[in-house]
């Protein structure tokens, strides 16, 4: 078995770490990871042929061991050990972001703000798990001055594990919501699991940014070193949330920060980014520029105009909490002749049926003109109304909708990633 120092030296000589033999970068260090339906050891030889300088395997039968091939007990564990080794070599602040909703948007906003003063590295996309976090850490170079690490979890002890690898010295939790209830067991389980970030920072003299308007988080962090932001008095950073016809606006002291992004639920995400900018002493004028330049994409609260009709595409993820706030925000801005298209929510365990029915009842109480649902979980609900029409899948929806001779002034599309509701956009453009 190979010494971890040898692997770290190989990493320093390499062009970076890879876990996918299909997209090997010349000179890279390839880790042969295992999954439910694949074994990376089978592709180690291919990785070398495609230009990898080194490979790490945990199957002694996969390749003949030589100076370019490291045999270890467990490739994933070795990847995580390598990331930890690299983290200890870094002398920069690392900000950890977790929460039930809004992690990626908040991370990207913070990156835009801090990039006005520092060379920042952040998690790409949503590579926020036990594989993505180590890879993100290993992408940090000696030139970077700040790193932002997004951390996702569906069970307790996952955030604790990710913190032990990334060793953050700053942290922020966006919120506690009804996400991954199947794994966490309950909302209280979510709070316990996400708060593992607070526990790590508290034990390691880290600093925490806390939304003062979130009473649970205020209580959870009262014994830790923290900075409070929010609309309430007695905040370290007092922020005003202002109404805006086009996007969102927040105020701090005499400065106004305008953002083009949609959805009132993004007020807090903007405020958190502004707060990090203040704490890291970024010039306020530069923070204004950063917030104004960032617009949400990739199916996250994305506003698309089709034949003069605004479509809000929020199909990157969905859980009962994010679904509820998305509906509230949509109806606040578009209150008449509106349509919502909702896709199934996943990982809700025993609460699946109840939570889907709660969402339909909320739609009815908000007075939404028409409610279309897609997926078997909404199909099986017992909530029925003339304003509700349920479809088993996207294909069935498209065939049926094409027959309707109706026009709506606004449309919200919201569902879990696996529902792929973004496929509806080309359809609506074709009408």
Structural class: alpha/beta
**What is the CA-atom radius of gyration, in angstroms?**
23 Å
CATH architecture of the largest domain, by name, is: 3-Layer(aba) Sandwich
Measured by DSSP, the beta-strand proportion falls in 15-25%
Low-confidence stretches: none
How many domains? The number is: 3
**Biggest beta sheet attributes:** 7 strands, parallel
The CATH class label of the largest domain is: Alpha Beta
Measured distance between first and last alpha carbons: 61 Å
Q: Specify the overall morphology.
A: globular
Q: Output the CATH topology of the largest domain.
A: UDP-N-acetylmuramoyl-L-alanine:D-glutamate ligase
Query: How are strands sequenced across the largest beta sheet?
Result: 8-9-7-10-11-12-13
Q: Helical proportion?
A: 25-40%
User: Based on DSSP secondary structure assignment, what is the total number of beta strands?
Assistant: 22
Mean pLDDT: 94
CATH superfamily of the largest domain: Mur-like, catalytic domain
Number of helices: 17
Description:
This protein has 431 residues and is of the alpha/beta class. It has 3 domains: 4-74, Udp-n-acetylmuramoylalanyl-d-glutamate--2,6- Diaminopimelate Ligase, Chain: A, domain 1 (3-Layer(aba) Sandwich), CATH 3.40.1390.10; 90-293, 3-Layer(aba) Sandwich (UDP-N-acetylmuramoyl-L-alanine:D-glutamate ligase), CATH 3.40.1190.10; 302-430, Mur ligase, C-terminal domain (Protein-Tyrosine Phosphatase, Chain A). It has 17 helices and 22 strands. The protein has helices at residues 4-13, 44-49, 75-89, 103-114, 132-138, 158-166, 181-184, 187-194, 196-203, 215-220, 266-279, 284-293, 320-333, 352-365, 376-379, 394-401, 424-430, and strands at residues 17-18, 29-31, 34-35, 38-39, 54-57, 69-71, 94-98, 120-122, 146-150, 170-173, 207-211, 226-230, 237-238, 240-242, 248-252, 255-259, 302-306, 309-314, 338-343, 370-374, 388-391, 410-414. The chain has a 7-stranded parallel sheet with strand order 8-9-7-10-11-12-13, sandwiched between helices. A 6-stranded mixed sheet has the order 17-18-22-19-20-21, sandwiched between helices. Helix 3 packs across helix 5. It is globular. The model has no long low-confidence stretch (mean pLDDT 94).
């Amino acid at each position: 078995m190979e010494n971890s120092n040898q692997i770290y030296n190989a990493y320093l000589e390499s062009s970076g770490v890879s876990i996918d033999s299909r997209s090997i970068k010349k000179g890279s260090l390839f880790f042969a990871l295992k999954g439910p339906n694949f074994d990376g050891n089978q592709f180690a030889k291919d990785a070398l042929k495609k230009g990898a300088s080194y490979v790490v395997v945990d199957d002694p039968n996969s390749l003949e061991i030589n100076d370019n091939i490291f045999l270890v007990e467990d490739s994933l564990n070795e990847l995580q050990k390598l990331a930890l080794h690299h983290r200890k070599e870094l002398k920069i602040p690392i900000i950890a972001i977790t929460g039930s909703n809004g992690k990626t948007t908040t991370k990207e906003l913070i990156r835009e703000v801090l990039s006005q003063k520092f060379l920042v590295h952040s998690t790409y996309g949503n590579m926020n798990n036990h594989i993505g976090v180590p890879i993100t850490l290993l992408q940090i170079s000696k030139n970077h001055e700040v790193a932002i690490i997004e951390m996702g979890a569906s069970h307790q002890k996952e955030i604790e594990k990710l913190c032990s690898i990334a060793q953050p010295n700053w942290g922020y939790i966006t919120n506690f919501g009804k996400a991954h209830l199947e794994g966490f067991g309950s909302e209280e389980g979510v709070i316990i699991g996400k708060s593992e970030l607070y526990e790590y920072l508290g034990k390691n003299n880290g600093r925490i940014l806390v939304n003062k308007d979130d009473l649970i988080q205020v209580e959870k962090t009262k014994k830790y070193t923290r900075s409070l932001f929010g609309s309430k008095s007695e905040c370290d950073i007092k922020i005003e949330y202002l109404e805006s016809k086009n996007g969102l606006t927040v105020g701090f002291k005499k400065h106004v920060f305008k953002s083009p992004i949609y959805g009132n639920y993004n007020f807090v995400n903007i405020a958190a980014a502004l707060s990090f900018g203040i704490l890291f002493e970024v010039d306020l004028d530069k923070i204004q520029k950063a917030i104004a330049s960032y617009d949400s994409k990739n199916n996250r609260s994305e506003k698309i105009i089709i034949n003069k009709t605004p479509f809000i595409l929020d199909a990157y993820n969905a859980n009962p909490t994010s679904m509820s706030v998305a509906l509230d925000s949509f109806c606040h801005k578009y209150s008449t002749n509106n349509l919502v298209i909702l896709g199934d929510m996943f990982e809700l365990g025993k609460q699946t049926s109840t939570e889907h029915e709660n969402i339909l009842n909320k739609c009815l109480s908000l007075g939404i003109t028409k409610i279309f649902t897609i997926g078997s979980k909404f199909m099986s609900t017992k909530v029925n109304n003339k304003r509700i029409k349920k479809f088993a899948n996207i294909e069935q929806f498209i065939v049926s909708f094409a027959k309707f001779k109706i026009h709506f002034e606004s449309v919200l599309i919201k569902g879990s990633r696996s529902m792929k509701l973004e496929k509806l956009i080309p359809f609506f453009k074709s009408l």
